[in-house]
Amino acid sequence: MGTTKKILLTLLVLFVLIQFYRPEKNDAAYRDVASFEAETKPTPEIKTILENKCYDCHSNKTYYPWYAEVAPISFLIADHVEEGNEHFNVSVWDSYDAKKKDHKLDELIEEVEEGEMPEKGYALLHGGFSEEEKEALMAWTRAVRKQYETSE
Fold first, then answer.
1. Which residues, at least 6 apart from 103, have a Cβ–Cβ distance to it below 8 Å?
2. Contact 43/69 with Cβ under 8 angstroms?
3. Model-level pTM?
C-alpha cells in the first residue's frame, strides 16, 4: 500500500471515529426570548431579522441544520454558539442591569456596522444582512438604547 493510500485511510478512520464524539448542544427546552422582546419591543420586521439571523447564536436554544451533526463542523458550530452566548444572550436579558443592556446593544451596533455579525460562515450559508435589514436593525437598536441611557 502506497503512502498516499495509508494517509487517506488514516484520515478516513479518524473522520469516522470523530463522529462518535459530540460537542454539547445549546438546546434548552424552548427559545426564551419573551423578556427581551417584551422590553425591547421589536417590530415584526426586526423580530424576523432577530429570529433568522441572531437567536441561533444569541439565545439558549439553537435550531441546528443537518450539517451540524457532522464532525468537525459540529465542533465549529458549537464553538461559535458558545462564544455568541458569552457575548450577548437574549435568554438571560433579565439578569443584565440597565448599564449592561445598553452596553450589549452598543456592541450589537458596532458588530453589525463593522460587518462582523452575522459571522462570515453563518452569512455564507444562511445569508447576511441586506442593507435595508442592517439599517433597520441599527435604527431599532439605537432607539432601544435610549431607554437605558435615561434609566441610569
1. none
2. no
3. 0.83
- Alpha carbon distance 34, 10 (integer Å): 48
> How far apart, in whole angstroms, are the C-alpha atoms of residue 53 and residue 32?
16
User: Helices 131-149 and 98-113 meet at what angle, rounded to 10?
Assistant: 160
How far apart (Å, rounded) are the C-alpha atoms in residues 133 and 149?
Answer: 24
Which residue is listed with cell 455568541? 84
Distances (CA, A) of 41 to 56, 86, 91, 102: 19, 23, 15, 15
Query: Whole-angstrom Cα distance, residue 54 to residue 62?
Result: 10
Start-to-end CA span in the chain (Å): 71
Predicted confidence (pLDDT) per residue in 82-136, tens digit: 999 999 999 999 999 999 999 999 999 999 999 999 888 888 888 889 999 999 9
Nearest to 110 by CA among 83, 144, 142, 143: 142
C-beta atoms surrounding 27 within 10 Å: 10
**Taking Cα atoms as reference points, which of 132, 136, 135, 115 lies closest to residue 124?**
115
Q: Cell 458549537, residue?
A: 78
